[in-house]
Amino acid sequence: MLRDRDKAIIHDLNRFRVMDRDSIAELHFNGLKRPKNAANNVLLRLLRIGLIQRSTQYTPYVYFGPDVNIKKNSSKIGHFLAILEVYKEIKRLGQLEDFLVEPKYGVKGTVEPDIFCVYRKTPFFIEVQKTIYSNNQMKEKMDRYLELYDSKVLNPFPHVLILSEQRYALDEEYPFKLFQARTFTHFLNSLKNKETE
User: Fold this and answer.
1) Model confidence over 115-152: pLDDT tens digits?
2) Cys bridge to 138: 82, 128, 168, 190, which one at CB 3.0-4.6 A?
3) Contact 9, 42 (CB under 8 A)
4) Peptide bond preceding 175: is omega within 30 degrees of 0, i.e. cis?
5) Which residues contact 110 (CB under 8 A, 6 or more apart)?
6) Cβ contact 53:62 at 8 Å
7) First vs last Cα of the chain: how many Å apart?
């Protein structure tokens, strides 16, 4: 018999593709005295009955939902965990209304944002750049955003936010708002600084 929390964990594992134990504890066991212990017990039970998968190649262990086809040593795991970190950061900031991981807006070749979210009633596409792109690669990505904008599939078109340690030379004028920051919190702080200037 699955409890509501079990179903919520499985839903999140499918949504984020992969989650580490500490993130599961933070998101689903936060009100308890020992969230990590409680998370371990529930995850072990779900693993034993075959409803989730696990990789022990990471510390803490990482878990996958039943609908996720990802190799246990995939290089994409770090990418999905980085997306999960952004989710937790925005959730802590409050007023997060929607959060989709790698939503699809067209055929292959159409831009695939890492995240679509609505924060404070404002839609965002977020690129979580952990690997360094060349300026050309980033420009090609932005050209695909431009194609999506021109397709009029989305109205209003979300702001585009690139989260990266690297700052890219994107000097072109775009018909949508484009921001770059190290983290979502840095992005919000930069907006506050502009308001006080």
Assistant:
1) 999 999 999 999 999 888 888 899 999 999 999 999 99
2) 168
3) yes
4) no
5) 104, 144, 147, 148
6) no
7) 57
